[in-house]
Amino acid sequence: MIVDVNAYLGHFAFRRLRHNTAAALLALMDSKEIDKAVVSSAGAITYRNAQAGNEEVAEEVRGHGDRLIPFAVINPFYAGWQDDLKICHEQFGMAGLRLYPKWHNYQLSSPCCRELVDAATERGILISIPIRVEDNRQRSWLLNVPDVPLEEIVELVKTHPKARFILLNGIGYTGCPLGRKDNGLPANYAIELSRLSAVLANELGQLITNLGAERVMFGTGMPFNYPDPALVKLEVLDASQANKEQIRSKNAMTWLGL
Amino acid sequence: MTIPQTTSSPPAPQPRVSRRTLLKGSVAAAVAIGAAALPSARSAAVEQPASGTPSGPFRKGSVIDCHAHLSHRSRATWEADDRKLIEAADKLGIDQLCCSTLTPRWPATLDGFRECNQWTADGMRRFPGRVLGYCYVNPGYGREALEEIRRYVGDHRFIGIKLYNEYTCTEPVVFPIVELAIELGVPILHHASHSHYFVEDQPRMSDGGHLAELARRYPEAMLICAHISGGGDWEWTIKALRNVPSVLLDTSGSVTDEGTVDMAAAVVGVDRLVFGCDSSMTAGVGKIRGANLSAQDKQKILGENMMKLLRRRKP
Prior knowledge:
Largest interface: A-B, 36 and 41 residues
Strand order of the largest sheet of chain B: 1-2-3-4-5-6-7-8
Number of helices of chain B: 11
CATH class of chain B: Alpha Beta
CATH architecture of chain A: Alpha-Beta Barrel
Helix content of chain A: 25-40%
Distance between the termini of chain A: 13 Å
Strand content of chain B: 5-15%
Shape of chain A: globular
Number of strands of chain A: 8
Helix content of chain B: 40-55%
Distance between the termini of chain B: 32 Å
Number of domains of chain A: 1
Structural class of chain A: alpha/beta
Radius of gyration of chain A: 17 Å
Strand content of chain A: 5-15%
Oligomer: heterodimer
């Protein structure tokens, strides 16, 4: 079984996405033998009112709950986010959040964001944070959104030891405390592999050594990304079958309570 | 600087990503869209397992990474890093890597690129049949740069020329290099990127538009636009190169945006795409595997197109 913790539905403001409806994404997943995927709204990344994107996703995944697991995009600086969180969790059955602090222009350390993290923790839902949406070198002339600095994530996981975070689309964890052994941080975060190297520098292998295979999860970033590079990483990774199985699905299933 | 000489043969490649696996995405896609399956004869050719050193320089069915680098030897780990590159190629089913060694700082000095080319030549000796060399020069060194190319393409059998960002490729100082490449019948792999902002640390960066302009000036030149998946706005780059048939597009780079290879194939045609990784190994392989193209088309990208280019070398 393969569970992808990093997938999306809907439109992105700066590039046409294919396979971005539930039906099309499921067809792509079938062709790649990916069983389940955690999905959130690509549109909500740039919508002012992110809840509109959550509503779109809730509508799209209806009838596909066995395979598509919706996460909510919440901007803690936007009016009514508490209501949105409640609706997303209780009505839409969304099992987690995706936060975009740089795209939505807030600090992870801000009181509003801390309040959101606490509220999510109280509800027992996961918080995923894409370190980037796309490569900054290809950005539109309209904006310049930096990656989320990993140092800010360090502070976040430290400040909220009871919360559970999944870090997406990141790289360079071994160059900061997040990816180091005995780093003194709570074990409340997992790292998704779509941008990690599995050969040459082999950051993926280093993370397994430093943090344990139970802290690494499979993800593709589809349909922003081709799913195949992430699948190839699993194929070439020097790790035991048991560790690969953890990464492929078990860790995500455990964290998602499936 | 003394160059360590080793004569060890490369290990027999045991790819974890076999040709069959590398190409299977296309077969699955073909089935999904109801297209005709891969003809069996062709299938046998592309699925032939790699074993040992290729019988000729460019074997049918080879997977050739058109954009690779050996480590600069100022890195303490250069030897292990080079070995890791070959090991990664083994795992991924890549038969040959077209490598340059780049200076760690730019613009490259004369001594700097000379040293790099010696190391590339040494890499070809250390990994015979696996590493093919590009001669890297800074065109600003004029006569010395041309002599360097003649030495390495001629005497050391390098397969082409690597140009970086010392000059925009439309500057006249680059023209003698292009003319020499035409004379020798070898390709130029040119660093390129197009961002919608000024890239301060690479003020003379070339982009697809510059390469198109150069190709119009020298239609007989074999130009490869480097890393469309690591060169900024790839949609811009592909469109800029639509109408210049002599420019090939290298698919390498760390960006794995869905649709990149598909759009490139649709806009410029598969015959103008060459597979590369530029050190982003799984990204490079995964993009080709993920593209919704036939196995035949993928094989063109993976090796045949580059092979065709390399066979145009003049005696």
